[in-house]
Design a protein that fits this description.
By secondary structure, this protein is of the alpha/beta class. The chain has helices at about 40-50, 70-75, 90-100, 110-120, 135-145, 165-175, 190-195, 215-220, 240, 270-275, 290-300; strands spanning about 5-10, 15-25, 30-35, 55-60, 65, 75-80, 150-155, 180-185, 200-205, 205-215, 225-230, 245-255, 255-260, 280-285. It has two domains: about 5-220, Rossmann fold (3-Layer(aba) Sandwich); about 225-300, Alpha-Beta Plaits (2-Layer Sandwich). It is about 35% helix and about 30% strand. A six-stranded mixed β-sheet has the order 6-7-8-3-9-10, sandwiched between helices. A four-stranded antiparallel β-sheet has the order 2-1-4-5, covered by helices on one side. A four-stranded antiparallel β-sheet has the order 12-13-11-14, with helices on one face. Helix 3 crosses helix 4 (about 110-120). The two termini are about 30 Å apart.
Length: about 300
């Protein structure tokens, strides 16, 4: 595994920010790390990068234990924190050269030129950072995080405050980067994650509440309730539907009903059987496809 956390727990006073969090990320994956504000996202990322120490549990990156003194493994990680810390009085190119110097890289000027080209900072490289837009400042932050060619890239809310054009530019850049690196991207913007990532991990109140591919989660293959759309040829007694095994709730609109299951059981065969036994004709019977934002709200509100 490229990144693995095992039973990470972190306390701030009496508040438990992380509660025995475990997950693993394979080499080359682009994973979205989701959760409401205060769920523990940034704390987890800081522990992975060695900026914070867990109270218990362990993190391994590229098979090595992470700790604040393990400089060798920390060189394999690029980190863009939520509040991008930049020296705004420096010129872009100057700032990247200084950043490269911290890692004692050979051919610093060549490496800076590569990063300027990758992040499309060519027209901005001779400007002071304070003169850049939010989008270009994020590009500078990404260039800094990538300057030492890490194998793992940790991005904490990389698109906060960007306009739609800037959003698409940064999305494209992250997708390009992920072709060669393991990327973990934190966000609470569902559309952002859905546009970029192929797997998501959802954390709420310090615990992992969902982990899987986006399509798998949207299709209801994780631990959440199924919703079925059923349209009958005539009016149906809702009370009778509620007596079907594993049916939790029914919302009626004319002859069309939204039927919610109790747990992950597929209730479509039971709804079909109900129609046959009561001499109804089913005009429609399909699973409701929910968007990621609705699923996120459902998971985090119930957890």
């Amino acid at each position: 595994m490229s990144v693995e956390t095992r039973h990470i727990t972190k306390l701030f006073g009496k508040q438990k920010a992380l509660d025995s969090v475990s997950f693993s990320i394979k080499k080359g994956e682009l994973v979205g790390f989701l959760g409401p504000n205060g769920a523990g996202k940034s704390t987890m990322m800081k522990i992975i990068t060695g900026f914070l120490t867990a109270d218990s549990g362990e993190v391994t990156v590229e098979g090595q234990n992470m700790n604040s003194k393990n400089l060798k493994i920390r060189r394999n990680i690029g980190y863009l924190p939520e509040h991008n810390p930049l020296y705004t009085d420096l010129y872009v190119k100057e700032f990247l050269e200084i950043s490269a110097g911290f890692y004692k890289l050979n051919n610093i000027k060549n490496r800076v030129s590569e990063m300027v080209e990758l992040t499309k900072l060519g027209d901005e490289q001779n400007k002071k950072i304070r003169a850049l837009s939010k989008g270009y400042r994020q590009r500078v932050g990404l260039a800094q995080a990538l300057i030492h060619n890490p194998s793992v890239l940790i991005l904490d809310e990389p698109t906060t405050g960007l306009d739609p054009n800037q959003l698409e530019e940064i999305r494209h850049l992250i997708r390009e980067i992920s072709r060669e690196k393991t990327v973990m991207l934190s966000s609470h913007i569902m559309q952002e994650v859905e546009a970029v990532c192929n797997r998501i991990i959802i954390i709420n109140k310090g615990k992992i509440v969902a982990d899987g591919g986006i399509e798998k989660i949207k299709s209801g293959s994780i631990n959440r309730n199924q919703i079925v759309i059923a349209e009958f040829n005539s009016s149906v007694d809702v009370d009778k539907l509620l007596k079907i095994k594993n049916v939790r709730n029914v919302i009626q609109s004319g002859n069309t009903l939204e039927i919610e299951s109790e747990g992950v059981a597929d209730i479509r065969p039971l709804v079909f059987q109900f129609a046959v036994e009561n001499n109804f004709t089913l005009l429609t019977l399909r699973e409701k496809q929910q968007n990621l934002e609705n699923i996120f709200q459902e998971i985090t509100q119930k957890a």
